[in-house]
Write a structure and sequence with these properties.
Number of helices: 6
Low-confidence stretches: 1-5, 8-16, 107-131
Largest sheet: 4 strands, antiparallel
Distance between the termini: 29 Å
Order of helices and strands: EHEEEEHHEHHH
Helix content: 40-55%
Number of domains: 1
Shape: flat
Length: 131
């Protein structure tokens, strides 16, 4: 999903300048199951947006949650939609200097793909090295 991005080195500079992050729980797969994993550390969560004020972040969160509740009525039986609903139900806004995330933003680690098929894909640098 294009609005979900994992925290990465590329985003660290922009995050430090922005101030507020909208984060949502990662969505993982295990066998044929797909589920939101809010118990994972914040370093594994997705960044759903970057904002210059807490108010703008909270407005975006409320808007996204409202959009999901309106467009997903009756789809809770579909595992992917249930996982996304759960992910956004656990989403929240956090300041980039919050101690729970500030350390990670200063020292980001590469994020592993939550989907096994995506993990099997070589990165652009790996593909170039193989050529």
């Amino acid at each position: 999903m294009k609005y979900n991005r994992r925290v990465s080195l590329c985003h660290t500079t922009a995050i430090a300048l922005v101030g507020w992050l909208l984060v949502s729980a990662p969505i993982l797969t295990k066998g044929h199951q797909i589920y939101a994993a809010p118990q994972l550390p914040l370093s594994r969560w997705y960044i759903g947006g970057k904002f210059d004020s807490a108010q703008k972040c909270h407005e975006a969160l409320e808007g996204r949650q409202k959009q999901i509740s309106e467009t997903r009525k009756g789809t809770d039986w579909m595992p992917i939609f249930r996982a996304e609903n759960d992910s956004w139900a656990n989403a929240f806004c956090i300041s980039s200097d919050d101690p729970r995330i500030a350390k990670f933003l200063r020292h980001p680690r590469p994020a592993a793909s939550p989907h096994p098929a995506a993990a099997a894909q070589p990165s652009p640098s790996q593909a170039a090295a193989q050529e």
